[in-house]
Design brief:
With 250 residues, the protein is α/β, with parallel strands linked by helices. It folds into 2 domains: 116 residues, no CATH class; 115 residues, Rossmann fold (3-Layer(aba) Sandwich). The strands form 2 sheets. A 4-stranded parallel beta sheet has the order 2-1-3-4, sandwiched between helices. The longest helix has 17 residues.
Length: 250
Amino acid sequence: MIETPKASPTVGLFVTCLMNLFRPSIGFATAKLLEDAGCIVSVPASQTCCGQPAYNAGDNDAARALAKQVITAFEDYDYLVGPSGSCMATIRHDFPVLFAADRNWRDRAEAVAAKSWELTSFLVDILGITSVQARFDAVATYHDSCSGLRGLGIKGQPRQLLAGVEGLTLREMKDSEVCCGFGGTFCVKYPEISVKIVDDKIRNIRATGADILIGGDLGCLMNIAGRLTRIGSPIRVYHVAEVLAETRLA
């Protein structure tokens, strides 16, 4: 059972590696949305990578070391919120598994996992927000990331929030739930397959006539944006937080 959040909950903002290095505007947009929703937002300086790359590569020792830093940095907040279904799925589902043999750390991992949420799910499912005041003049289509969709059930929440953005027309693409070909190290290990998958995705994006593509995981967005750039497409790529917070790219 999900508890009703208290007034002005404290939220620790999880700054993903990709967001920190390549698109900090997503972090600022996320903080704005959370503060507008009445949250007290902090960004713990001691946070690190969630450890997903190490965990997926089978290096559980490195993954546990990174997980411990995340747990320690965030366990005093009411909630841990991040603009990434991929990272949040790791924290929610994989952290407790990593510490299955260590009762103390398992309990701490489970406590943090239980209060960790992807941004749009937190706004809609926990805070009960159905719309935000924003304007973004564009025709858009939405890509569902594998981790967010299958790991956390992120599907209707971003669309519900985007439906209230003035000036935005959202057109669903064919196979919006199909992988974009990123898959973390998958695109490095199997580049030919990855390119074929992302080209299929771009074909579906173009078919909608959209000006912009929106999504909730920066890894997917970078993969698609990179391919769009290489083929000379004018379609721009935005994280859902940027659209909801009216953040435009230069």
